[in-house]
Specification:
3 domains, globular, single chain
Amino acid sequence: MPLVLWVATAAFIVYGTTIPFHFVPDAGVAAQHLDTFRTSAVRMFGEGHHVSGPDFISNVWLFAPFGCFGVWALRRPRSPALRAVILTVLGCILSGGVEALQLFTTDRVSSISDIIGNTAGTAIGAVGGIALRTTAATLLNTGAASGLIQSPAFYPFLASLVLLFAGAWEPFNPTLDVGSVVSKLRTLRHDPVQFSPLSDEGVSLMQHLIFSAALFVWLKEMRVRTAATVVAIGGVIAAVALEGSQIIIESRMPGLWDAAVGAIGALVGVPLGLAYSKRPYSPIWPVALITATVVAAMMQQLNPFMLVTNPRPFQWMPFLNYYEYTTAQTVSHSAELLLTYLPLGFGLALATWGTRSRWMFPLGAAFAIAVPVEYLQRFIGGHFPDVTDIAMSVAGSWIGAWTATRGWRLFAADVRVISSHPEVASSKARRPVMPAPDLPR
């Protein structure tokens, strides 16, 4: 999975930085662009010159996943620091390569600041990937010693927790700008509700619902008697806290309306978790998951539900429509699609028997939902039907299916290794462990 994501990120960088592919085989054009590149490099290091902050940050965020996935994908060298250095060099080479390609385009401008921002983004992503892996290993060891992660229900809960945080923080562009935070606080003072036309409420409701249901099942397996009360209170607190944390997310605006939607989802998840713990293999769950995904996708992709007289043409070139938006907007839209369909892939993969069916059913269901929703965008104002959105939707379901199959097996293997350590096996805090479920094979 990390290798696939790393290669896909590199391909996306090359594709996204050269689209719409207006190349000209003219040495004169390349020479003119190269002269502009040299001039900008001299000015950049000159006195009084300032680099565009938004452009620089966009370049950092564009290459950060390349560094993060790369440090996870590379197995050699063993030293994490050395892998980070290698990834940084590779990021610099990749950035230089795409900037060189842009010399032969008519609508792209090569810049030394882009190379610096891209290289810095790779380094930040690599260091972040190392820190994330180290932190995860520490948490796994602590959880194993306390007997909290051996429960079969812990992994779905962990996946739902990651989904919840990702949904609240995408497009992952935190800001330390005091002025931006103060501006949001003033806006909240005048309008604390922040109600807007329905869009991502269905996705948010589903994410909080799945989180509280998974938490309830896990606590029941851990024999927590007041599981329902803990989940209800904890779910509401999580909804309010995550909404409040958006005050430092540059592209997000917190509000009481979104917090209330999350809180409702958390409360509804409690009885659903109870019902699932009693009948986990009921066919009603896949049907309910598909229905919830359809509703959430339509709310998100078809708002503001305003019909147009002239249907828009379907865009068959991937990411061409995204070219008109900023990096943050592109990341946000892509993340929304991935997170909308990820639960579908996870749930259908677990509910399906057979190795091939565990992949075909989630991908087929995502395709069957995304195609008509995207087609309907031809008739809705403010939307542009795009083959890219269909691909991102199917990719989200694929990531969910991988998480429920290969990802779960890798996690279970790590837990078995950690639990076999003498200091963990002899821990007095360790609780009785329920038998492992029939994990996807």
